[in-house]
């Protein structure tokens, strides 16, 4: 798609140069913001946890112990939001010996490393059929976009979690030497951003990697028990308390269903129904459409539960669907026509550019979110229909 827009040599070079400049500015600003902010890193919750003080009670009661002041936190950051389960906070314990500012700098460097690994792994996995020039443009577009810049700036964990998800994917499906141990550990770590990665893990159910999923989940179960002992609290509270902290943000997302329904119970019912449908589709899906199924999971994962728009940089991965559909179309095996694929691809780029840039131009105003949200939901429903058709024909082929 991208290379077709740039047949002229000079236009190709100009387009590449523009995106390099935009990506460089975005990267610089993202790092600059991260140095001053990184409020979502959760160093505070991890540090409190390491002191055997319950971070969930601290969050609910607005830091009653006053422990954050001891570490030089200014007033703006004194409200803790420990919305991670104890097994996930334990992953961050490697940062416990570091001071807040030092830990922030280390996290910035790690997020840049995760970015490089994400780009590398995408080229090795879902986007492996993409030509180098187009892949370069798509990667630069991701870095130039507002979601990535904000993701880096606030110190979020999506880069971290998505990187480990791709590591699991690579060693499960694309490496010459598949390694179940690495897949299991990578899945265990990628749950850190469970609102994104839990829907994506349905892909591993589709691939029948049940053992890796079960073991990775059991590891969190064991650590939850350890966390309950460490904080002298019940196991049930170790599950419920983080969810209660998270639920306070349910209506504050960007384009997600919870924001659409202002955090009402309807959003939770819809999320359950959609997850159930995606789960069932994992057992019915035509094996020819594996990257299309993954793209569908990515689109839904960003709106099925609370997400701010800084998580939407993963939208570039959806391009894998078009690589797959075009390859099937060349062999006359695709359920979509060539024109249909091209029209959907154009709509995908319009939607992605709207998410990456238009929302920022209009400061994520209500009207801009409604406009971009309509585009995003239309795209998601269209891809879901393709997955539904692929599942139907997949079941029909097995019957035949």
Radius of gyration: 21 Å
Name the overall outline. Answer: globular
Distance between the termini: 35 Å
**Number of DSSP strand runs:** 0
List keywords for this structure.
400 residues, mainly alpha, 0% strand, globular
Q: What features would you describe in this structure?
A:
- The protein starts with 8 loop residues before the first helix and ends with a helix.
- The chain is 68% helix and 0% strand.
- The longest helix has 34 residues.
- With 400 residues, it is mainly α.
- The chain is globular, with a radius of gyration of 21 Å.
Brief rundown of the structure:
The protein is an all-alpha fold and 400 residues long. It has helices at 9-36, 43-50, 55-60, 86-89, 100-124, 132-144, 146-153, 158-174, 180-190, 194-200, 202-206, 210-231, 235-247, 257-260, 265-284, 290-301, 319-330, 338-361, 366-399. It has 19 helices and no strands.
SSE map:
Blueprint: H1 9-36, H2 43-50, H3 55-60, H4 86-89, H5 100-124, H6 132-144, H7 146-153, H8 158-174, H9 180-190, H10 194-200, H11 202-206, H12 210-231, H13 235-247, H14 257-260, H15 265-284, H16 290-301, H17 319-330, H18 338-361, H19 366-399
Helix pairs in contact: 1-6, 1-7, 5-8, 8-9, 8-10, 9-12, 10-16, 12-13, 16-17, 16-19, 17-18, 18-19
């Amino acid at each position: 798609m991208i290379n077709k827009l740039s047949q002229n040599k000079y236009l190709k070079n100009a387009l590449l140069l523009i995106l390099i400049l935009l990506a460089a500015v975005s990267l610089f600003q993202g790092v600059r913001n991260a140095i001053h902010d990184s409020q979502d890193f959760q160093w505070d919750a991890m540090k409190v946890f390491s002191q055997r003080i319950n971070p969930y009670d601290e969050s609910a009661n607005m830091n009653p112990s006053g422990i954050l002041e001891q570490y030089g936190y200014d007033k703006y950051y004194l409200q803790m939001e420990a919305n991670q389960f104890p097994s996930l906070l334990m992953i961050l314990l490697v940062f416990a010996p570091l001071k807040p500012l030092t830990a922030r700098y280390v996290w910035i460097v790690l997020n840049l490393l995760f970015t490089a690994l994400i780009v590398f792994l995408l080229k090795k996995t879902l986007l492996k059929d993409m030509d180098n020039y187009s892949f370069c443009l798509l990667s630069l577009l991701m870095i130039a976009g507002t979601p990535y810049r904000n993701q880096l700036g606030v110190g979020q964990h999506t880069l971290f979690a998505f990187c480990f998800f791709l590591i699991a994917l690579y060693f499960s499906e694309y490496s010459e030497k598949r390694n179940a141990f690495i897949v299991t550990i990578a899945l265990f770590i990628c749950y850190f951003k469970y609102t994104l990665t839990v829907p994506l893990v349905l892909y591993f159910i589709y691939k029948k990697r049940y053992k890796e999923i079960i073991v990775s989940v059991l590891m969190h179960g064991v650590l939850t028990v350890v966390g309950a002992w460490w904080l002298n609290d019940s196991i049930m509270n170790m599950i419920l308390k983080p969810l209660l902290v998270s639920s306070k943000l349910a209506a504050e997302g960007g384009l997600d269903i919870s924001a659409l329904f202002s955090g009402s119970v309807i959003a939770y019912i819809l999320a359950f129904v959609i997850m159930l449908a995606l789960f069932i589709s994992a057992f019915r899906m035509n094996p020819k459409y594996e990257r299309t199924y993954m793209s569908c999971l990515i689109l839904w994962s960003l709106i099925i539960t609370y997400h701010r728009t800084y998580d939407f940089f993963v939208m570039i991965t959806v391009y894998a669907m078009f690589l797959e559909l075009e390859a099937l179309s060349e062999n006359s095996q695709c359920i979509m026509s060539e024109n249909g694929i091209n029209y959907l691809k154009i709509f995908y780029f319009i939607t992605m550019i709207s998410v990456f840039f238009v929302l920022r131009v209009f400061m994520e105003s209500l009207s801009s979110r409604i406009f971009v949200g309509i585009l995003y939901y239309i795209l998601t429903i269209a891809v879901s229909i393709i997955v539904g058709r692929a599942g139907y024909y997949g079941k029909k082929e097995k019957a035949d």
